[in-house]
Amino acid sequence: MFDADSRSGARILYRKLKLNWVFSTSTFIGNFLITLLVTYFFSKIGYDAQVNFVFFISILAIGLWISEALPPFAVGIFIIATLLLGFSTDFFFDKTMPAELYVSTWTSNVIWLLLGGFFLAKAMSIVELDQQLFQFTVKKFGQKPERLLLGLMLTTAVASMIMSNTATTAMIISSIIPLVRLIGKNAPYGKALLTAIPASASVGGIGTIIGSTPNAIAVGALQEKGISITFMDWMVVGFPTGLLLVWLFWKFLCRTQDFSDVKLDLSLLPKGEGNVGSFEKYAVIVTLIVTVLMWLTEPLHGIPVAATSAIPIVLLTMTQVIHSEHVRSLPWDTLMLVAGGLALGIALVEVGLAEIVMRKINALPLPKVFIAIIFCLVAVLLSNVMSNTAAASILVPLSLALPGIYGIAGPVMVAISCSCSLLLPVSTPANAIAFATGMVEQKDFRTGGLFYIILGPIVAFSAVMAWVLLFH
Question: What's the whole-model pTM score?
Answer without folding.
Answer: 0.70
